[in-house]
Amino acid sequence: MGIRAAVAGASGYAGGELLRVLAGHPEFEIGAVTAGSNAGSRLGEHQPHLRSLADRVLDPTSPATLAGHDVVFFALPHGESGPIARLLGDETLVVDCGADFRLHDPDEWEFFYNSPHAGTWPYGLPELPGQREVLRRTNRIAVPGCYPTSVALALFPAMMAHIAEPDVVVVAASGTSGAGKGLKTSLLGSEVMGSVSAYGVGGVHRHTPEMEQSLSAVAGEPVTVSFTPTLAPMSRGILATCTAKARPGLTADRLRQAYAAAYDGEPFVELLPEGTWPATAMTLGANTALVQVALDERAGRIVAVAAIDNLAKGTAGGAVQSANLALGLPETVGLTTIGVAP
Ligand SMILES: NC(=O)C1=CN([C@@H]2O[C@H](COP(=O)(O)OP(=O)(O)OC[C@H]3O[C@@H](n4cnc5c(N)ncnc54)[C@H](OP(=O)(O)O)[C@@H]3O)[C@@H](O)[C@H]2O)C=CC1
Ligand SMILES: CC(=O)N[C@@H](CCC(=O)OP(=O)(O)O)C(=O)O
After folding, report:
1. I want to staple 31 with a disulfide (CB 3.0 to 4.6 A). Which of 4, 122, 191, 226 is the partner?
2. What is the arithmetic mean of pLDDT over 227-248?
3. Measured from the CB, is residue 285 less than 6 Å from ligand 2?
4. pTM for this one?
């Protein structure tokens, strides 16, 4: 008998990707699959690509339907997981793909999410210094946001090596699945196709404090991030272009050495060969983050670029990677670096 896992929010994009990963994972057995307004319907109506699970019926999302599992993955809108998670016992590993438990500072939470802070759980990004050990000893995991995953992986080596000033500019492009399944006019095919647009401009996007939290912890000093998200006409993928002023005397060799050292032996993050730049298409369907870095000597800035699949390393793959650690399994089991193309 495998590790029994429930997925709350199974009709959504993140829930669907969790089920795709779990269905191919040798240690997991899929238990309850739950939803909100779509409870009572067949999973196959919402996730037609998950053929072997098509006849499963979605239960309502409640402590009763989620009880009795070894692991519960939440893929609900933020604000929805906290009240239910509190009622699950310590014997259950709870992994929240939503934002509820990511931030340490309650004031930052209230400012960006306009609701009371639910609390803080260990952050599910094993690549951050010391985080793997934290995740091996926890029964609660806050999965990072998709943009913050890409930005932390692009910049933490520079912050850790103290070769970058703590003042960062990020422009990142996301595919439309990042916004979830909810219908929004700006996400209609006719609006998105053939155009790239900025949104959440001017320090108002809720992922900004999460990026600052990770980078500040690694740098050992407050790091400010000016973040501009953009929406690109693709269904999956994030390409984050991040720059920070270089500390005096930094050389291109020293910069590359810092990144090579940080990612040596990492199973899911690859520093690409010099001259090759990440593209979202290189990561689709894989739990991979691809990183490249250069020193812009004219401007005196470090330029780091990361590509991920927002639903894979950016959500479900990252969630399973962290859950593997918390369950004492090999970190890589059930996850792949082999993507799909075109
Ligand atoms: N999409 C992405 O790239 C990423 C998403 N995440 C996070 O994952 C979570 C889910 O996102 P995503 O899959 O994109 O969103 P979707 O809108 O695609 O799916 C939301 C899911 O939550 C269910 N749901 C909605 N409201 C309620 C409720 N009140 N009670 C119970 N269930 C409810 C929906 O069920 P129903 O169909 O019945 O409405 C659906 O299953 C979010 O917190 C998001 O921030 C994190 C990183 C990246
Ligand atoms: C394209 C798009 O709209 N992206 C979403 C990313 C949010 C996401 O999924 O992250 P959370 O887990 O923090 O909700 C946005 O900018 O709000």
Report:
1. 4
2. 98
3. no
4. 0.98
Mutation probe of ligand 2 site: the residue of 80, 113, 174, 313 with most atoms within 8 A of C-beta: 174
> 238 and 127: one domain?
no
Pocket test for ligand 2, best of 146, 234, 236 (most atoms within 8 A of CB): 146
Q: Is there a single domain that holds both residue 35 and residue 20?
A: yes
Which single residue is written with the structure tokens 């991920």? 308
* Residues 6+ positions from 89 with CB-CB distance below 8 Å: none
Q: For residue 190, name the pLDDT band (cuts at 50, 70, 90).
A: confident
Identify whether 338 is part of a domain. no
Ligand 2, closest atom to CA 310?
Answer: 9
Q: How many domains does the chain have?
A: 2
Ligand 2 nearest atom to the CA of residue 174, by list position: 1
Query: Domain containing 176: what range?
Result: 147-310
Distance CA 17, CA 148 (A): 19
- Is the reported ipTM for this assembly greater than 0.95? yes
Q: What is the CATH number of the domain that holds 84?
A: 3.40.50.720
Cβ–ligand 2 distance for 75 under 6 Å, the answer no
Give residue 185's pLDDT.
Answer: 77
> Is 132 in the same domain as 187?
no
- Ligand 1 atom showing the smallest separation from residue 77 Cα: 43
Report yes or no on 339 lying in a domain: no
DSSP 237-298: -EEEEEEEEEPTT--HHHHHHHHHHHHTT-SSEEEPPTT----GGGTTTSS-EEEEEEEETT
